[in-house]
Amino acid sequence: MQNQPSPLILTFGPADPVGALGVQSDVAVFAMHGCHGLSVVTGLLVADSARVDDIQPVDSTSVVEQARMLLEDMPISAIKVGTMANLEQIAAIAEIVSDYADVPLVLDPFTSALPDCGTRDDDVLTLIHQLLVPQASVLVLSQNELARFADCWRDPASEATVAEDAAELTASGCGHVLVTGIGGGDGIRCNHLYDGDGLALSLDWAPRLAGPFVGAGCTLSAALAAGLARGAGVLDVLPHAHDYLDGALAHARRFGMGRLVPNKLFKRP
Q1: Sheet holding 189-195, edge to edge
Q2: How many CB atoms lie within 10 A of CB 6?
Q3: Is there a contact between 212 and 259 (Cβ–Cβ < 8 Å)?
Q4: What is the DSSP-derived secondary structure letter of residue 52?
Q5: How far apart are CA 46 and CA 237, in angstroms?
Q6: I need a labelling partner for 69 at 20 to 30 A (CA). Which of 9, 16, 40, 150 fits?
Q7: Please, what are the domains in the chain?
Q8: Which helix (H) or strand (E) holds 105?
Q9: Across-strand partners of 44?
Q10: Is the pTM of this model over 0.90?
């Protein structure tokens, strides 16, 4: 009998009935990269393919109990933290991951599809900035989310470049900051990866694909977590994760009357 045939990844996030976001999405991406997903649900979404109407939080005590049971039973190769439903969950999950500092942590806490998902809540932003960002191997967020997140450390009326805001986060202890959707005048958009020395990698993509999509960001961050779980470094993992996302978007499917869902089961030969 073979024990632990593939790396195990623990993911925290909401349960999405569509499977476009959250833990269901993560588990599918992990499997496509040869990893097995373990999931702790932070909230229950009320959603269809067009929109998310509500998120119903799971009690933080239940989140802690489930995570501790898994972590004490199995060797985890990576952790992914997605959307958290309240301050109690943020504090509890931060304490849990602090006990596993040697395990790579991918932090992707903001999902634009969720109603009031934390990007407008100053207390949520501040707690994520204080407790989770310093522990992250990679923080994933869009350019718009970074601009809002920057209110935690600078006056909202002030201006700074993406690189300057990313530098603030890496200075706090975050290993890498991946900023997605940086716009260019020629219609090309970029995903920029920053480390403590500044811009480490830039990947371009043209917004040529039909849309809109739901779940693109969490597909990318889950692919990153899978690569780290298999022992690769961030600079090596990101181009592969980027290529996987491009294929998933190019072959996205429309399940209902709403947005396109990335095809997480598609992988280039």
Answers
A1: 52-57, 36-47, 8-15, 78-81, 105-107, 138-142, 176-183, 189-195, 198-205
A2: 17
A3: yes
A4: E
A5: 33
A6: 16
A7: 8-250 (3.40.1190.20)
A8: strand 105-107
A9: 15, 56
A10: yes
